[in-house]
């Protein structure tokens, strides 16, 4: 059965006319007529007889009516139950973020939120790939991107600045004797990733040696702290690790921003709204750390 036609059938049965049924449903009388006719064609019976007093149920219509009312009641019961759950600050929220962001930006905020809302559970997925909100792989995601795409909504918090950083002692030792284009310096890199190789070429050190190839960004951070070379890192890492220094003569790249992203349908779910509001507030309170100013 075409369940989408049942509301039209019930509205006509209750109101006795197409126009009144359309007003009840917030549609047009032509749409209601098509839906009723489609249901009649599907069932192979006539459900209404039109007379001087409007639309009257036939014997087939009277037989269908209690079943349609039962289906409507079951649907409303299920809808109300789900909406009731959403009004409560309970349940699970799936959150995704890259590991370095989660370790150093989110841990404190997640712990504090869990204390405030003990009935809301957080399932945190750490990955450098972006989980699909559109495919319902995650509920909320923290992303560092220039723009959003897809059926998502997001709050843009602040620039996610990137810069070239190295250990202070490495710069003290190596920078004075480096060549004018970085000869003698070492890059900590991801290998032949076109966008990052372009960043190296556009930097003041295009001829520094791409020496350390490591796919894990957090390892870049720790290698740079240990004095292994230059690394492209989030600007907030300097506030967290004072042994790091932005390389003299370089500027921060503010093309990306930090976003908290969720599926548009989840804006009506109370536990998700509570979490997103809290997380955004917590991150904005530390904005100065994250934008490297």
Structural commentary:
By secondary structure, the chain is α/β, with parallel strands linked by helices. 44% of the residues lie in helices and 22% in strands. It contains eleven helices and twelve strands. It has helices at 6-15, 18-25, 29-43, 59-87, 99-116, 168-174, 194-202, 217-225, 237-240, 270-285, 287-290, and strands spanning 48-51, 54-57, 91-97, 120-126, 140-145, 152-159, 162-167, 186-189, 209-213, 231-234, 244-246, 257-263. A five-stranded mixed beta sheet has the order 4-3-5-12-6, covered by helices on one side. It has a three-stranded antiparallel beta sheet with strand order 10-7-11. α1 crosses α2 (18-25), α1 (6-15) packs across α3 (29-43) and α1 packs across α4 (59-87). The model has no long low-confidence stretch (mean pLDDT 87).
In percent, how helical is the residue content? 40-55%
Number of strands: 12
| Cross-sheet strand order for the largest sheet | 4-3-5-12-6
Shape: elongated
Sheet-strand content, in percent, reads: 15-25%
Can you give the mean pLDDT?
87
Calculate the terminal CA-CA distance, rounded to whole Å. Answer: 62 Å
Please give the largest β-sheet: 5 strands, mixed
The SSE string, one letter per element, is HHHEEHEHEEEEHEHEHEHEEHH
Number of helices: 11
Radius of gyration (Å): 30 Å
Contiguous low-pLDDT stretches (5 residues minimum) are none
Category from helices, strands and their pairing: alpha/beta
């Amino acid at each position: 059965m075409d369940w989408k036609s049942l509301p039209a059938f019930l509205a006509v049965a209750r109101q006795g006319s197409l126009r009144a049924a359309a007003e009840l449903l917030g549609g047009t009388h032509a749409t209601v007529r098509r839906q009723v006719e489609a249901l009649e064609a599907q069932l192979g019976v006539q459900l209404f007889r039109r007379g001087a007093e409007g639309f009257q149920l036939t014997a087939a219509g009277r037989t269908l009516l209690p079943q349609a009312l039962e289906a409507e009641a079951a649907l409303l019961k299920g809808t109300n139950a789900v909406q009731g759950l959403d009004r409560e600050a309970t349940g699970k929220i799936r959150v995704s973020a890259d590991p370095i962001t989660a370790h150093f930006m989110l841990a404190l905020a997640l712990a504090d939120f869990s204390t405030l809302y003990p009935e809301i559970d957080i399932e945190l997925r750490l990955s450098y790939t972006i989980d699909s909100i559109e495919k319902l792989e995650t509920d909320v995601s923290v992303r560092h991107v220039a723009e959003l795409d897809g059926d998502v909504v997001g709050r843009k918090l602040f620039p996610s600045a990137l810069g070239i950083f190295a250990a202070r002692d490495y710069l003290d030792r190596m920078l004075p004797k480096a060549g004018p284009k970085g000869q003698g310096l070492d890059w900590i890199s991801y290998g032949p990733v076109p966008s990052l190789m372009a960043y190296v070429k556009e930097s003041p050190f295009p001829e520094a040696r791409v020496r350390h190839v490591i796919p894990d960004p957090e390892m870049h951070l720790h290698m740079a702290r240990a004095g292994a070379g230059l690394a492209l890192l989030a600007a907030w890492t300097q506030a967290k690790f004072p042994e790091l220094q932005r390389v003299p003569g370089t500027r921060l790249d503010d093309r990306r921003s930090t976003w908290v992203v969720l599926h548009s349908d989840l804006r009506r779910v109370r536990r998700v709204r509570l979490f997103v509001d809290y997380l955004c507030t917590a991150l904005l309170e530390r904005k100065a750390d994250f934008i490297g100013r």
